[in-house]
Amino acid sequence: MKTPERKGFFVSLEGPEGSGKSTLLARLASALAARGLPVLATREPGGEPGAERIRELVLRDGFVPRAEALLFLAARAQHVEAVIRPALASGAIVLCDRFHDSTLAYQGYGLRLELEPLRQACRFASGDLMPDLTLLLDLPVSVGLARRGTLQPTLALELAPPEEATTRPTAIDLRPVSFHERVREGFLAEARRDPRRIKVIDASRGPEEVFRDAWKQVMAVLPRGRAHPRTRGAS
Ligand code: TMP
After folding, report:
1. Cα 108 to ligand 1 centre (Å)
2. Quick check: 226 pLDDT over 90?
3. Mutate to test the pocket of ligand 1, among 172, 173, 190 (most ligand atoms within 8 A of CB)
4. Ligand 1 atom nearest to CA at 110
5. b/e string for 36-63 if b means 16 or more Cβ within 10 A?
């Protein structure tokens, strides 16, 4: 069921493995909160107890491509209705680590599921909820996988210091480089398809520069009263 009114603002962060989405999301959340804005930071798959259980399952076990897509979408349906829509209805700025475009990039372009039916399934799962703004952190696949620690050790050491590889690799991280190349190209293709919503940020740079660009993009599209709540008295 859809909530008719939507007072908040919905931002998704997208990108291939190791693109620094989570670090950026944490920085954006604290910068917005420091301005006195209500922020909800969440992630996909997950962000809600049932959806987190689906996350464990889908990232741990192997499923055939259609089943994998439907599990990500089941998690999304749960997360949207239980968490995201209520937060938007209450006026929050929702920052979500991955959403719609990850399903198209990973299951559509990456696993080669048919794009148009998948697009429709995504719309069905989210009840047509789409982000107002998507920040796509783009970087070469080899650099991202090295940051995640899932590239051959010798090349990984050249590209990223080992301490940056923080999280345990999932079954998806360990797919061949050609899969991750299709994912990256898929994200970029979606950005060309919808340049108004999806803003591409060069994530091969340091976290400070990435944050600066991302902040500019958020400020450019946040409704005016919300970007300057103290001076303009946003509710
Ligand atoms: P992350 O939280 O570390 O980004 O991991 C989530 C993984 O799930 C990542 O490999 C991307 C993948 N994923 C999909 O394949 N399809 C989706 O729809 C979503 C939301 C994530």
Report:
1. 13
2. no
3. 172
4. 15
5. ebebbbbbbbbbbeebbebbeebbeeee
Return the residue whose CA atom lies nearest to atom 2 of ligand 1: 44
Are the C-beta atoms of 24 and 94 separated by less than 8 Å?
A: no
Q: How many residues does the chain have?
A: 235
Beta bridge partners of 97: 13, 43
Ligand 1 center–CA 145 separation, angstroms: 14
pLDDT at 189 over 90: yes
**Among 103, 192, 184, CA closest to 142:** 184
List the structure tokens of 169: 């690799």
Distance 36 CA to ligand 1 centre (A): 30
Residue 24 Cα, ligand 1 centroid: separation in angstroms?
A: 16
Distance CA(17)–CA(211), nearest Å, equals 18
Tell me, in angstroms, the distance from the centre of ligand 1 to residue 45's CA: 6
Residues contacting residue 168 through CB under 8 Å, at least 6 positions apart: none
Instruction: Please choose, from the candidates 124, 128, 119, 139, the residue with its C-alpha nearest in 3D space to the C-alpha of residue 19.
Output: 139
- Reported as a single tens digit per residue, the pLDDT across 193-225 is 999 999 999 999 999 999 999 999 999 998 776
pLDDT at 219: 95
CA distances from 87 to 21, 45, 210, 231 (A): 21, 17, 26, 24
What residues does ligand 1 touch, defined as CB less than 6 Å away? Answer: 17, 43-45, 59, 72, 98, 102-103, 106-107, 170, 172
Q: Work out the pLDDT band at 167, boundaries 50, 70, 90.
A: low
The neighbouring-strand residues paired with 136 are: 14, 200
